[in-house]
Amino acid sequence: MKKWIMMLCFALIASIIVPQSPANASTNFKDIGDTHRAKAEITFLVEKGFVNGVSNTHFVPSRQVTRAEAAAMLGRSLGLNGTKQNTGFSDVGAGNFASGYIKEMVKKGVISGYPDGTFKPNTVLKRGEMAILINRAFGYGGNSVSAAATNLMNKGIAQGFPDGTFGTEATIIRADFAVFLARSLNESFRVKPGEVSFSTTMYVNTGSDTLNMRSAPSNSGKVISKLKSGTAVGVGTSSNGWSNIRVNGVVGYVATSYLSTTKPGSVLPSPAPIGGSDLTVILDPGHGKQDSGGIGNGYMEKNVVLNIGLHTKSYFDKTPINVKMTRTSDTFMELRDRAKFASKNNGDIFVSLHTNAFNGTANGQETYYYAKTAATNPNVKQSRALAIYLQNRMMEAWPTLRNRGVNPNNSAGNYAVLRENTVPAALVEMGFIDNSTDIKYIGSEAERKKMGRALFLGTLDYFYNYEGRTDILPYYSTVSGSPAKKLH
Ligand SMILES: [Zn+2]
User: Do residues 442 and 433 make contact, with C-beta atoms less than 8 angstroms apart?
Assistant: First the structure.
């Protein structure tokens, strides 16, 4: 019983900084151990609800901060209203996780866009920009980069690099941004005159060799550790070619010439900047409005698949992955327009949501993909893999239903939303709405929510296992999940 349908778009960039049980979140980060140099500052900010982890378990301190993230973290710290809204910037839709803060910060004159009407939300922030932002946000007065940097150094909020520069063009990582923010908000975190704070992050840059960390600033100092290239160190003072550093709570000295301001071999530590994933998932709840879809047991297909679609979206909303839906209410869209919707919105995958109906006797779950190689949709292998991962999670969610499997759909009556799509596409039939067994799941709000989680996980499984997108791995922890094994 398929006749799908519908759309409306909803750009949702989920936040890394969405508020979440701030009281206990800080202690749970597996990547912020007790000796992490920014532990106290991150804990302070998380407990205040100003900054959150990428997930409940990971803060990802070494990732660079994007402009949108910086706006959200600063905006929250200033107590601004973060309700999502239109921003007027062509590249920041009302669905962007930071749209509310960006708009409010622009109003206050703290942040601004570019002359071409863009904001470039996913561009990583530079230290010079960070200095100006903090100056404006907290009223320190520095309007040029150099004046802003000088203010931060004089106040004990930031420090320069061993070469005497502020590192205006260097990017800034989450751990360091947290330190600067905490010091701006709370003077007790600031560096007192004469104090060595080890808060300038640099990286060991020795190629395949290790770097000797010594007990004193000379080659006769005892070697207390051997640091691998790429190790992040907190630099305190530097003189005569030696830098006083701290790593994992241990203090010592290394030759300054082997430290660099950027991590060797990686311009961006992560393929997808936080705050704006390059991935977009298209969800297509079937039918709508005049087209009820299958009917049974007092339920209409158009309503249950919309409900499951919205649940699915809510899971993606906790990650940076974008979601666009062909419909978010009881409206109708032609089948061909649904297929076009995916390419129009730069979708990476398309998932059409349906329930089956027969005569009450058929039951179970199945997933379809278009399999004709000479088709308009050339993504046969991708679509098949997507279908496999979705079906696997659907069965996991509603385990007592019959598994009708993953089926190629290439008959004469094949589905336009699959056939005419231009991205990997699958159509899930989550159960039979007119069957007395299946309706126990389909008719339950709690079970439909589970199905939303399943479709979220199946999609992640596809990105991870088929596309090799390891950057999405942290998103599993938003639902306490883990990747499926390779099934395709
Ligand atoms: Zn249907």
Answer: yes
460 Cα–ligand 1 center, Å: 24
Ligand 1 centroid to residue 265 C-alpha, Å: 50
**Rounded distance from Cα 95 to ligand 1 centre (Å):** 28
Q: What's the confidence (pLDDT) of residue 276?
A: 55
> Cα torsion for 283, 298, 414, 8, to the nearest 10°?
-30
Q: Residue 411 and residue 419: Cα distance in Å, rounded? A: 11
Cβ-contact 183, 190 below 8 angstroms: yes
Within 294-334, strands assigned E span: 295-296, 299-300, 322-325
Q: What integer pLDDT is reported at residue 268 of this predicted model?
A: 41
Q: Please name the residues in contact with 227: beta carbons below 8 A apart, sequence gap of 6 or more.
A: 204, 206, 210, 211, 212, 213, 233, 247, 254
36 Cα distance to chain centroid: 23
Distance of CA 5 from the midpoint of ligand 1 (Å): 9
Q: Within the chain, how many helices (H) and strands (E) appear?
A: 13, 15
Ligand 1 centroid to residue 370 C-alpha, Å: 16
- Distance from the CA of 293 to the center of ligand 1, in angstroms? 5
**DSSP code, position 349:** E
Q: In angstroms, how far is CA 222 from the centroid of its own chain?
A: 44
| CA–CA–CA angle 304, 332, 364 (5° rounding) | 35
Q: What b/e sequence results for 357-379 when a residue is b if at least 16 CB atoms lie within 10 Å of its CB, and e otherwise? A: beeeeebbbbbbbbbbeebebeb
Rounded to the nearest angstrom, the distance between the alpha carbon of 356 and the centre of ligand 1 is 6
Domains of the chain: 22-189 (no CATH), 200-260 (2.30.30.40), 280-479 (3.40.630.40)
Contact indicator for 303, 355 with CB cutoff of 8 Å: no
Q: Block means of pLDDT (10 residues each) for the chain, length 488 residues?
A: 36 35 54 85 91 78 87 93 90 87 92 87 88 94 89 90 84 90 94 81 89 95 93 87 90 93 59 57 96 95 97 91 94 93 92 95 95 77 96 97 90 76 94 97 97 98 90 86 93
Alpha-carbon distance 152 to 141, whole Å?
11
- Note residues around ion ligand 1 (Cβ under 5 angstroms): 2, 286, 293, 354
